[in-house]
Amino acid sequence: MPMERPASVQKAFVAMDTRVAITGVSRHHAEADIGLRIESAIRPFYEVEASCSRFRSDSEVRRLLHHVGEAVVVSPLLYHPLRFALTIADITAGQFDPAVGRRMERLGFAIDYQSGCSIASVSVPDDVTYRDITLDDEHRTVTLHRPVVIDLGAVAKGFAVDLAATQLQELDGFVIDAGGDIYAGGLRPDGKPWRIGIRHPRVSGATVATLAISNCAVCTSGDYERKSRVEPGASHIVLPQRGGTSPASVTVIARYAMMADALSTAAMVLGPDEGRALLAKCGVEGLFIMPDLSTFTTDQWEVYTDE
Q1: Backbone phi, psi, residue 62, to 5°
Q2: 154 annotated ligand-binding residue
Q3: Which of this chain's residues are annotated to bind Mg(2+) (predicted)?
């Protein structure tokens, strides 16, 4: 029998160098039951991190470097996000490229947030690309044809969010917020869509828009998230050397968090014109905020706004 007032539980934790908060609400489950479901939703974050982190010497993605030239069987926790990252790399002709791990290390993004230890890869050529990685869907293997430090920062967290969401489907509503990667399922306790604020890229604590969403993901990539201490002006998103101005941030609404996560980063790399074309091709909506705070959106973005 439904409860008069919905039960609500929130749990927060740190995983993948991010504060993650999961909220669950239900009129049909007691708080203890909601809490157990949230605990089940927490596990994928640690499991994906253990497989996909380039900062951990014992991760699956790092162990590939010990088997260059060999077809290595990997778990689905690595195979699926890597496969998706390579698909986006192909669509963008390599402008989005998960083979940038060594470049990220040189920018100073090489410290494991848990241990505080720095990791540095040696004997990795500067010209490696995603084309040096081959997958075999039938056998679920990965082959590095040359030493490649794979960086899955643009897909792994979204993948973990999607896996977590599968554990919460029986609740009336839930929100998973993983530091800018958000999935909102079902409805709020008042029966309305969840309201999600879009961060202002230049004013801390401020928002530029509010969305009303249900059963979809909202992910934002921005140049403000993590700055390089080695190269002034550089961030954790490796931008190509091209003309034009790159966005300050890109927010994408998609059915799945891994898709929104990857496409927001890809659109940052491509810029507003090519980026909007990519989002339209993939059937998702997006908001581009430029450094001068001018904005560009896809055609159906306004459907989700809640002003």
Answers
A1: -75, -35
A2: yes
A3: 154, 261, 265
How far is it between the farthest Cα atoms of the chain? Answer: 63
Question: For the whole model, what pTM was predicted?
Answer: 0.93
Mean of pLDDT over the chain: 92
298 marked as part of a ligand binding site: no
pLDDT for residue 229: 65
267 within 8 A of 275, measured Cβ to Cβ? yes
What integer pLDDT is reported at residue 225 of this predicted model? 64
For the chain, residues with pLDDT lower than 50 are 235-236
Does the annotation place 265 within a ligand binding site? yes
